[in-house]
Amino acid sequence: MGDDSMVGSRQSEAVYDVSVECYAVLGTANLPIAQLLKLGRGAVVELDRKVNDPVDLYVNRKRIAKAEVVVVEDHLAVTVTEVLKRAAD
Fold it and tell me: What integer best gives the mean pLDDT of the chain?
């Protein structure tokens, strides 16, 4: 029989190449369709969050953490500040 630790290791490594959808939600807004259709370039939509509020981090549509927005070189990024004990919808 093979080494059980090697089999477990190979099985866990198999998931490393699986892609998941990951996104951060800065905030939300509810707009009537009529107002949405009037939006044009430069329009401002007010979100339900303040500037320093944490953003929600989702993986495969499940909220898994809270994060803060940071700048890395020329890109926006997030740094995880709290991992939720249980994924929330």
Answer: 88
